[in-house]
Structure formats: C-alpha cells, structure tokens
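Thread: sanity check for a docking pose with magnesium ion

Original post by kr_44:
Hi all, I'm comparing my docking run against an independent structure prediction. Below are the sequence and the ligand SMILES. Could someone generate the full complex and paste the structure tokens? I mainly care about where the ligand ends up relative to the chain.
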Amino acid sequence: MLEEALNEPRSQDGGSGEKGSRSEGTMPKRRAAPTTPSIRGVLVDRDGTVIVDVPYNGDPERVEPVEGAKRALDALRAAGLKVGVLTNQSGVGRAMISEAQMRAVNARVEELLGPFDGWFICPHAPDADCDCRKPKPKLVLDAARTWRIAPSTIVVVGDKDSDVEAARNAGAHAIKIDGACDIASAVDSIITDR
Ligand SMILES: [Mg+2]
Ligand SMILES: [Zn+2]
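Reply from moderator J.T.:
Ran it for you. Here is the predicted complex with magnesium ion included:
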C-alpha cells in the first residue's frame, strides 16, 4: 500500500514515452537516474496528522500530539531529511483566529514535536481563491525551492485528499494517513523505501 503511494506520481520522468510500458526487473541498467528518486524531504500536514485535529484552534494549550508523532519526526531528522509542515489554516482568513494565535499554536507544536525546517502555511479562506491553499501545489514547490531539492524527492504526509492532490500537483509523492496508516507507519515506509 505504502509502496504504491510512493511510486504512483511519476510526473518528473520527463515524458520519456515509457509510461505504462515499464516491466519491472527487465530494465537495462544504462539509466543513470533511478526511476524512484531518493527522498530528501518530508512535508507533514499539521491537523489530524501530527497533532489531534481541533478545528480552528487558537489556543496553544489545546495542542495535543498524535501518538508516536514525536518519535516518527525525530526518525526523519536523524535520517538527515528535511522536515516541514504544510498546512491550510483558513481560520485566519475566516477571522476565527488571529495570525498571532496561529503562530502561538505553531510554536507550541514545535515545542512538543521538535524544530521544523520550515512552515508552509496557507492562511486564506477557501473563497479567497489564493495561490497557495492545498490542493494547489505552490507550498510544496516553495518547500522544494527553499530546500533546494526537487519536488520529486519530497513526500507529503497528510490525512486528506487535498494533501495527496497537492503532492501530485507538485510532482511530489504522497502518503495518506488513515485507519490503516498512521504517522509512524508512514515514516517507516519513507525511511525503508528511501
Ligand atoms: Mg489534516
Ligand atoms: Zn492561500
């Protein structure tokens, strides 16, 4: 399941015309570039992925990490990967929380889950028609540029289809958190498949 999620988006192949005709195990070794580029960065969604989802939360005291999230994120850091947060915070754009409240919540997240290599945040309301709200690819591409790595070496881990689609739209990989896959198993598969 996870392997499939990691292998699915192949938009970085450069249109070599080989799509759909891959036959595993029979590829000549002449290709310099691996078909699955190694992973160099991970973008985790915030709410419902690394902390318990409290809709439009502006209170740092209500931040509660998902079980196993700290250990999983530390494993990514120890593996030398960039680790960032990719999050839609429309509560700001809807004026339900202030930007200062959002920042206070994010600071608490870092306090509990360790430092991140970047926060990639869309604060806009859905009807603002901004450039950055997931599933748009902009924030994934911003992370790639900030980290000086290719989008195809980034995995987005999130609990919604919009997380997966943002990754696909950017040419990155995606792993969806659901009943069968939590942050710990997602991270295991990233480190194993790398
Ligand atoms: Mg989420
Ligand atoms: Zn936005």
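The longest strand covers residues 82-88. Hope that helps with the comparison, let us know if your pose agrees.
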